[in-house]
Amino acid sequence: MARILLTGRPGCGKTTAVRETVERLGPAIEVAGFYTEELRRAGRRIGFDVVTVDGRRGPLARAGAPGPPVGRYGVDLESFDRVGVAELEAGLSAGADLLVVDEIGKMELLSDRFVSALERLFDPAEDHVVLGTILRGRHPKADWLRSQSGVEIIEVTEANRDALPRRLAERIGPATSDAGGS
Prior knowledge:
Blueprint: E1 3-7, H1 14-25, E2 31-41, E3 44-52, E4 57-63, E5 69-70, E6 73-75, H2 77-94, E7 98-104, H3 112-121, E8 130-134, H4 140-146, E9 151-155, H5 164-178
Parallel strand pairs: 1-8, 1-9, 2-7, 7-8
Antiparallel strand pairs: 2-3, 3-4, 4-6, 5-6
């Protein structure tokens, strides 16, 4: 079992490392979960989308939009639950070999449904293989996840980010086989 959460400064390469790890693992394992993608217009960040590993997408947050505020963004919890959280729940139910959670951040943690899915993902009695990213700062729910048995936190830096996908794929590949994957 591997439960690996990447952390680090914004823009340090956490999401890229997760995506490249999944690509390295290839079609031999069943992957479910989501990524968050920054949206820019004319070089300026205007929001974020939630994108499932198979490419379905929906808005997560937009600058000035209605919804619970995080900084200058309004969070679209209904869209996040319908796209990202539903994908995680389906992966949990289907017994996916790897569950991807990018990211566990302030916006996502506003969703009660997401927090419930995280409790299932990180339940010590379960044997889920998880690769995700987690905010670097303090947050009660994120702090709880970091303290769970079997969770490994890796800080992404300029020095390690290029080698991480290969190292993570080597570790997760055998872990998925041990967990009953293909």
